[in-house]
Amino acid sequence: MTVPLALTPARERLVLWLLALTQFTVIMDFMVMMPLAPQLMQAFAITPAAVSGAVSAYAWCAGLSGLLAAMYIDRFDRKRLLLWMFALFTLSNLACAIAPNFHVLVLSRAFAGVTGGVLGAIIMAIIGDLIPAHRRGAATGIVMTSFSLAAVAGVPTGVMLAAHFGWASPFYLLVLFSLVIWALAARALPSMTGHLTRRVPLSAVLPNLIGLYRVPNHLKAFALSFVNMMTGMLVIPFISPVLVSNLGVKPAEITYVYLAGGLATLVSARLVGQWSDRAGAHKVYRYLALLSVAPMMFMTHMPMMPLLAVILFFPFFMTAVSGRTIPLQALMTTVPEPSRRGAFLSANAAIQQLGSGVGALLGGLTLRTDAAGHILGYGWNGWLAAGLTVFSVLWVGQVASAAGASPAPGERKAA
User: Using CA atoms, how far apart are residues 215 and 198, in angstroms rounded to an integer?
Assistant: First the structure.
């Protein structure tokens, strides 16, 4: 069993915020592609389906890279591997910015997915190595604010830059920002080699990877991650098109909707993480997952309403739907043995990407457009998401922590 490194509170906070900023660049890189679709279509003379292909190339490559990373992620110093992958991720964004044609852009997006998918797993492995189990909820909450930062600052800034300086400008911004974060991380992150005490020979890597999927508790955890991501992606990718087509919201006004949701999660993420540490990840996940059913159903059955009402509602949706991921991620860091944490979290990140892809695919299959341009069938997505959420609430009790990972205080009381 590896013992978490002892950091001063100030340095621990610095490390967590650097991890959050690293995750921010990955999330912004993925999210900013969707609002850039009109400009990409005009610049490269392509169809919406082609833009969708570029977006999905990232997700599928991120999932594949996560599976492959499970074979090597626990063989290197966490810091060194993070810096190498972050450097390659930065190069992929530079390639996107200077892409001379759409084919090069798609290849660059695929490369960004390969590196971005591994970065997410490394970040969670570092949290598992540095932060004791009873404080990982709060630590995960800090890192998860990266989603809020991307929604509040990253994507709106990228869209604004693209409107004034061209579609490539958000990627140049990401390159500059990533270089600054990389330099700070190189100085502030400690070397993390405690997981290397038991060196695994290369000949045993593939059998160990296969063995990762033979542990019943691992499979139960993977199933929970898959279902949790799929429920969100049944609803989230189609919010903007439905608001524009069915409620008459102007595309420019969508920024205010997501800004309100991002500001709410910027505050709620840390509160949810602290709550998870006090009450236990299992319990908090159940509460938030059940709470998320109501806003998901309202979102998918939304009547005609003014923009202000939509803006006021969206924070409740984002707080519940994104908030349940915080205790889930904290729980995932305790499922494997410490020596296999990186491999497990890499595989888990791949499963999450697969769940996202399946959810978006199924969600799109239920939708159709009528003669007036309204999107129909969105309600079915809500019912399916609600049913899968109830399943996840029942299933989370099947996921247990490894013998070497102590549960949070609330979980010890429940036990």
Answer: 20
